[in-house]
From TrEMBL:
Name of this protein: Acidic leucine-rich nuclear phosphoprotein 32 family member
Spans annotated as Disordered: 148-234
GO cellular component terms, semicolon-separated: cytoplasm; nucleus
Record has Cytoplasm as a keyword: yes
PANTHER family, per the entry: ACIDIC LEUCINE-RICH NUCLEAR PHOSPHOPROTEIN 32, ACIDIC LEUCINE-RICH NUCLEAR PHOSPHOPROTEIN 32 FAMILY MEMBER E
Organism: Parambassis ranga (Indian glassy fish)
Residue stretches of biased makeup (Acidic residues): 148-169, 176-210, 222-234
Amino acid sequence: MDMKKRITLELRNRSPAEIVELVVDNSRSADGEVEGLTDQFTELEFLSMVNVGLSSLAKLPSLPKLRKLELSDNNLSGSLDTLSGKCPNLTYLNLSGNKIKELSSLEALQNLKSLQSLDLFNCEITSLEDYRESVFELLPQLTYLDGFDQEDNEAPDSEADDEDEDGEDGAGPTGDYDEEDDEEEDEDGSEGGEDEDDDEEDYAQEEEEAGSQGQKRKRDVDDEGEEDDDDEDD
Protein backbone atom coordinates (compact mmCIF):
# COMPACT_ATOMS: atom_id res chain seq x y z
CA MET A 1 0.00 0.00 0.00
CA ASP A 2 1.36 3.41 -0.88
CA MET A 3 1.99 5.93 1.88
CA LYS A 4 -0.64 8.43 0.75
CA LYS A 5 -3.43 5.82 0.81
CA ARG A 6 -2.21 4.51 4.16
CA ILE A 7 -2.38 7.98 5.70
CA THR A 8 -5.92 8.42 4.38
CA LEU A 9 -6.93 5.14 6.04
CA GLU A 10 -5.23 6.10 9.31
CA LEU A 11 -7.26 9.32 9.45
CA ARG A 12 -10.48 7.28 9.86
CA ASN A 13 -12.65 10.20 8.77
CA ARG A 14 -10.88 12.58 11.15
CA SER A 15 -9.30 15.84 10.10
CA PRO A 16 -5.47 16.00 10.02
CA ALA A 17 -5.54 18.60 12.81
CA GLU A 18 -7.02 15.99 15.16
CA ILE A 19 -4.16 13.52 14.75
CA VAL A 20 -1.57 13.33 17.53
CA GLU A 21 0.08 10.01 16.58
CA LEU A 22 0.52 8.60 13.09
CA VAL A 23 2.06 5.25 12.11
CA VAL A 24 2.57 4.36 8.45
CA ASP A 25 5.23 1.65 8.85
CA ASN A 26 5.85 -0.67 5.88
CA SER A 27 3.81 1.42 3.47
CA ARG A 28 5.53 2.46 0.24
CA SER A 29 6.84 5.75 -1.08
CA ALA A 30 6.87 5.63 -4.87
CA ASP A 31 9.74 8.08 -5.38
CA GLY A 32 11.49 7.90 -2.01
CA GLU A 33 9.79 11.07 -0.79
CA VAL A 34 7.28 11.72 1.98
CA GLU A 35 3.77 11.52 0.52
CA GLY A 36 0.35 12.32 1.95
CA LEU A 37 1.56 14.46 4.86
CA THR A 38 0.63 18.14 4.83
CA ASP A 39 0.99 21.22 7.02
CA GLN A 40 -2.51 20.51 8.31
CA PHE A 41 -1.11 17.94 10.77
CA THR A 42 -0.52 20.74 13.24
CA GLU A 43 -1.03 18.65 16.42
CA LEU A 44 1.13 15.66 15.40
CA GLU A 45 3.54 14.67 18.19
CA PHE A 46 4.60 11.17 17.13
CA LEU A 47 5.31 10.02 13.56
CA SER A 48 6.56 6.59 12.56
CA MET A 49 7.69 5.90 8.99
CA VAL A 50 9.66 2.68 9.41
CA ASN A 51 10.67 0.78 6.26
CA VAL A 52 8.80 2.94 3.76
CA GLY A 53 11.63 3.37 1.24
CA LEU A 54 12.49 6.98 2.06
CA SER A 55 15.64 8.39 0.50
CA SER A 56 14.85 12.04 1.14
CA LEU A 57 13.04 14.23 3.67
CA ALA A 58 12.75 17.21 1.36
CA LYS A 59 8.94 16.96 1.16
CA LEU A 60 8.39 16.61 4.90
CA PRO A 61 5.81 19.26 5.88
CA SER A 62 6.09 21.61 8.81
CA LEU A 63 5.24 19.69 12.01
CA PRO A 64 5.83 22.19 14.84
CA LYS A 65 4.64 19.90 17.67
CA LEU A 66 6.43 16.74 16.53
CA ARG A 67 8.55 15.32 19.34
CA LYS A 68 9.27 11.73 18.30
CA LEU A 69 10.21 10.64 14.78
CA GLU A 70 10.83 7.02 13.76
CA LEU A 71 12.71 6.70 10.44
CA SER A 72 14.49 3.37 10.86
CA ASP A 73 15.14 0.95 7.99
CA ASN A 74 14.99 3.49 5.18
CA ASN A 75 17.56 4.71 2.62
CA LEU A 76 18.44 8.08 4.09
CA SER A 77 22.02 9.18 3.70
CA GLY A 78 21.66 12.90 4.37
CA SER A 79 19.20 15.74 3.83
CA LEU A 80 18.70 15.94 7.60
CA ASP A 81 18.80 19.74 7.50
CA THR A 82 15.07 19.61 6.69
CA LEU A 83 14.36 18.38 10.22
CA SER A 84 15.57 21.49 12.03
CA GLY A 85 13.36 23.73 9.90
CA LYS A 86 10.25 21.53 9.81
CA CYS A 87 10.42 19.74 13.20
CA PRO A 88 12.22 22.15 15.55
CA ASN A 89 10.93 20.53 18.76
CA LEU A 90 12.14 16.96 18.18
CA THR A 91 13.35 15.22 21.34
CA TYR A 92 13.74 11.69 19.90
CA LEU A 93 15.00 10.65 16.45
CA ASN A 94 15.52 7.09 15.25
CA LEU A 95 17.68 6.76 12.13
CA SER A 96 18.82 3.18 12.67
CA GLY A 97 19.21 1.00 9.60
CA ASN A 98 19.79 3.92 7.19
CA LYS A 99 22.77 4.76 4.97
CA ILE A 100 24.39 7.39 7.13
CA LYS A 101 28.16 7.00 6.80
CA GLU A 102 29.80 10.30 7.68
CA LEU A 103 29.79 12.40 10.81
CA SER A 104 29.19 15.44 8.64
CA SER A 105 25.73 14.06 7.79
CA LEU A 106 24.71 14.73 11.38
CA GLU A 107 25.85 18.35 11.52
CA ALA A 108 22.37 19.53 10.53
CA LEU A 109 21.03 18.07 13.79
CA GLN A 110 22.95 20.68 15.79
CA ASN A 111 20.00 23.03 15.27
CA LEU A 112 17.61 20.62 17.01
CA LYS A 113 18.20 22.14 20.44
CA SER A 114 15.64 19.89 22.19
CA LEU A 115 17.01 16.62 20.78
CA GLN A 116 17.79 14.29 23.66
CA SER A 117 17.93 10.83 22.10
CA LEU A 118 19.39 9.71 18.75
CA ASP A 119 19.54 6.14 17.43
CA LEU A 120 21.94 5.17 14.65
CA PHE A 121 21.97 1.37 15.04
CA ASN A 122 23.08 -0.51 11.91
CA CYS A 123 24.29 2.63 10.16
CA GLU A 124 27.82 2.59 8.75
CA ILE A 125 28.74 5.61 10.83
CA THR A 126 28.79 3.42 13.94
CA SER A 127 31.95 1.70 12.66
CA LEU A 128 33.94 4.95 12.75
CA GLU A 129 36.73 5.23 15.29
CA ASP A 130 35.64 7.11 18.43
CA TYR A 131 32.12 7.12 17.02
CA ARG A 132 30.29 7.74 20.28
CA GLU A 133 32.67 10.39 21.57
CA SER A 134 32.53 12.21 18.24
CA VAL A 135 28.74 12.26 18.08
CA PHE A 136 28.37 13.50 21.66
CA GLU A 137 30.92 16.21 20.93
CA LEU A 138 29.14 17.21 17.73
CA LEU A 139 25.70 17.18 19.36
CA PRO A 140 26.20 18.33 22.99
CA GLN A 141 22.41 18.56 23.55
CA LEU A 142 22.16 14.76 23.31
CA THR A 143 21.61 12.72 26.47
CA TYR A 144 21.36 9.29 24.84
CA LEU A 145 23.00 7.81 21.75
CA ASP A 146 21.83 4.36 20.69
CA GLY A 147 20.08 3.96 24.03
CA PHE A 148 23.04 4.86 26.31
CA ASP A 149 24.42 8.06 27.78
CA GLN A 150 28.08 9.09 27.76
CA GLU A 151 28.78 6.97 30.87
CA ASP A 152 27.18 3.94 29.22
CA ASN A 153 24.12 4.11 31.43
CA GLU A 154 21.09 2.70 29.65
CA ALA A 155 18.21 5.02 28.87
CA PRO A 156 15.26 4.38 31.20
CA ASP A 157 12.30 2.59 29.70
CA SER A 158 9.38 4.99 29.52
CA GLU A 159 6.80 2.25 30.21
CA ALA A 160 8.74 1.06 33.26
CA ASP A 161 8.86 4.63 34.53
CA ASP A 162 5.10 4.93 34.12
CA GLU A 163 4.60 1.71 36.09
CA ASP A 164 6.92 2.90 38.86
CA GLU A 165 5.11 6.20 39.04
CA ASP A 166 1.79 4.42 39.14
CA GLY A 167 3.11 2.20 41.91
CA GLU A 168 4.32 5.16 43.95
CA ASP A 169 1.13 7.06 43.37
CA GLY A 170 -0.83 3.97 44.26
CA ALA A 171 1.12 3.43 47.46
CA GLY A 172 0.29 6.89 48.77
CA PRO A 173 -3.48 6.64 48.53
CA THR A 174 -3.35 3.08 49.84
CA GLY A 175 -1.75 4.27 53.07
CA ASP A 176 -4.23 7.12 53.41
CA TYR A 177 -7.04 4.72 52.63
CA ASP A 178 -5.95 2.38 55.43
CA GLU A 179 -5.97 5.22 57.94
CA GLU A 180 -9.41 6.24 56.80
CA ASP A 181 -10.53 2.65 57.12
CA ASP A 182 -9.26 2.56 60.70
CA GLU A 183 -11.12 5.76 61.49
CA GLU A 184 -14.26 4.45 59.84
CA GLU A 185 -13.94 1.20 61.77
CA ASP A 186 -13.60 3.13 65.02
CA GLU A 187 -16.64 5.19 64.13
CA ASP A 188 -18.52 2.09 63.12
CA GLY A 189 -17.49 0.45 66.38
CA SER A 190 -18.75 3.35 68.46
CA GLU A 191 -21.92 3.48 66.46
CA GLY A 192 -22.26 -0.27 66.89
CA GLY A 193 -21.93 0.19 70.64
CA GLU A 194 -24.67 2.80 70.62
CA ASP A 195 -26.85 0.46 68.61
CA GLU A 196 -26.29 -2.28 71.17
CA ASP A 197 -27.19 0.08 74.02
CA ASP A 198 -30.33 1.05 72.17
CA ASP A 199 -31.18 -2.61 71.67
CA GLU A 200 -30.71 -3.29 75.40
CA GLU A 201 -32.93 -0.35 76.31
CA ASP A 202 -35.58 -1.52 73.88
CA TYR A 203 -35.35 -5.04 75.30
CA ALA A 204 -35.66 -3.78 78.86
CA GLN A 205 -38.62 -1.66 77.87
CA GLU A 206 -40.25 -4.65 76.22
CA GLU A 207 -39.63 -6.71 79.38
CA GLU A 208 -41.23 -4.03 81.50
CA GLU A 209 -44.20 -3.82 79.18
CA ALA A 210 -44.48 -7.59 79.11
CA GLY A 211 -44.32 -7.66 82.92
CA SER A 212 -46.96 -4.97 83.29
CA GLN A 213 -49.16 -6.76 80.78
CA GLY A 214 -48.70 -9.96 82.74
CA GLN A 215 -49.68 -8.21 85.94
CA LYS A 216 -52.67 -6.68 84.19
CA ARG A 217 -53.75 -10.05 82.89
CA LYS A 218 -53.36 -11.47 86.41
CA ARG A 219 -55.49 -8.69 87.84
CA ASP A 220 -58.09 -9.31 85.19
CA VAL A 221 -58.17 -12.98 86.06
CA ASP A 222 -58.44 -12.21 89.77
CA ASP A 223 -61.26 -9.79 89.10
CA GLU A 224 -63.06 -12.42 87.08
CA GLY A 225 -62.57 -14.88 89.92
CA GLU A 226 -64.04 -12.45 92.42
CA GLU A 227 -67.03 -11.90 90.14
CA ASP A 228 -67.53 -15.66 89.91
CA ASP A 229 -67.45 -15.90 93.69
CA ASP A 230 -70.07 -13.19 93.95
CA ASP A 231 -72.28 -15.02 91.49
CA GLU A 232 -71.96 -18.20 93.53
CA ASP A 233 -72.92 -16.31 96.69
CA ASP A 234 -76.02 -15.03 94.95
